[in-house]
Predict the structure.
Amino acid sequence: MTSSKQTTGETTPGTTSRDTSAQAQAIDVVGVDRVFRRRRDEVVALQDVTVSVAPGEFVSLIGPSGCGKSTLLRLVADLDTPTSGSVTVFGKSARQARRDQDYGIAFQQAGLLPWRTVASNIELPLKLHGVGASERRARSCELLELVGLQDFGRHHPDQLSGGMQQRVAIARALAERPRLLLMDEPFGALDEITRERMQNELVRICRETSAAVLFVTHSIPEAVFLSDRVVVMSPRPGRIVEIVPAGGGMGTSHERTDEVRDAAEFFHTVATVREHLHGAPVVGARAVENR
Amino acid sequence: MLGRLRAGLLGALGVLLVAALWDLYKAFGPEQGVLVGERTLILPRATDLAMPHTWEMVRRLFEPATGLRGAPTALEAVLDASAFTLSIAARGWLVGVVVGIALALLMTRFKIAEAGMLPWIVLSQTVPLIAIAPLVRRWGAQIEFGSFTWENEHSVALIAAYLAFFPVAVGGLRGLKSPARTHVELMHTYGVGWWRTLITLRLPASVPFLLPALRLAAASAVIGSVVAEVSIGLRGGIGRMVVEYAQSAGGDPAKAWAPIFGAVAVGLVAAGAVGLLTLALRPFHLTETIR
């Protein structure tokens, strides 16, 4: 896990970070198509998508609505199956990886069960998989501390703010110490201030757990700030336009601090991502705009 | 606590207000009512026969029910009959709730069951009770195994169940299908099957829908019992008593009201019992909110 971490900081141009796949990649998506058929309509949600995520690496999927980024994440989570192509997670099929609980997942809605306390929400996956009560309690205490909610274990979700609920959801995703986190716009419903704080928290959590992350987002600065690589997608049909490395002066995804938000490299990468998103060069001045 | 006291006081005030309105109309309303044209009565007659004084009704409760020597007071007779009807309604409610929840589960589990059964369930409630009551009695009379023989009170309970199952089936179905997609997919990612999902997610989520359904079912069971007692001709319950006492209304107008108060009391007790159930299930009544 740590050895490959070194490789991810370096520039990995284009779609080819798969050369390192002598050892199993956290995620390996090869030539995937996903076509939705509804009556007479055919919607090509994903076309020939090839991308991989190394263990410990943070990769973001960005693109306009309908570009298939959530679909791609759902394929990895085995909530959906590809029409063609293959999806492997740690060298296993996506289905097997789901059965083995190789990943933790967080959605845009926190999705906490309202009748359970915060602690028992975090313990839910452990409980469902037969972990004993004392071990569960120890783990939920640990995770509550990790997400900074140690005093809220006995509260119910409706007593928590949106940001706090999302932190609980992340703690729940981490409950079984997965080596991979799948996050579908987890901060999408939060205000900008909470959002930046949550991003800083996520950097720290990833550093402490050294989990690989596949992160779906709408926000360019968010993607650049958090990621080792940013996968830019375009809609109709959903495909990968470019994979932009976000490293260099910013360091690896585990080294990001608030200063990075002001670094020249950060603005430069934001501009590059935006360029690829719009499919045309953007004038230099607009690159400074931070959202 | 103070809130509950307030609610109780307001409730008592409401009853007094109805009683006051009744006697005010009786005092000042026209003896022969208000007629539109020749025959259409739009306000009731205020004679002693049509509208006995409220205190007459109450006083009548404490007088012997019949002219026989050693006859119990009307109140005792009504209480006896109420208890009898309540016990039948309770049995009907219980059967109805079990059947209703079973149907809701079946419809949740199999889409085809929902498509095939839901229209029939709705249709079942359009059959007039008076039509099915004699049929149920006739069919029941043919049932006999071992020491068990089908009594008329079983027919009444069955008809009560026939009315009670409907809100439970429909409300239960809505409740069991109420979990958000995020929640259902989360269970899928945990790799747990339909039964575990049912117990961890669907059943608790259905509680806010089931409680009002149970309350409706209680009201339906009471009405069903009272009406079925009349149509089947079962003695000993409130339904039959309403008919019997109404026959003596000519000479003893206040007496006819005694079983009506009994019916109201049965309804109140039934609703109250379900209210206690609501208290017990309160933890599940929380809903997810994002602040």
In short: Residues 1-22, 284-291 of chain A have pLDDT under 50 and may be disordered. The first helix of chain A runs from residue 2 to 9.
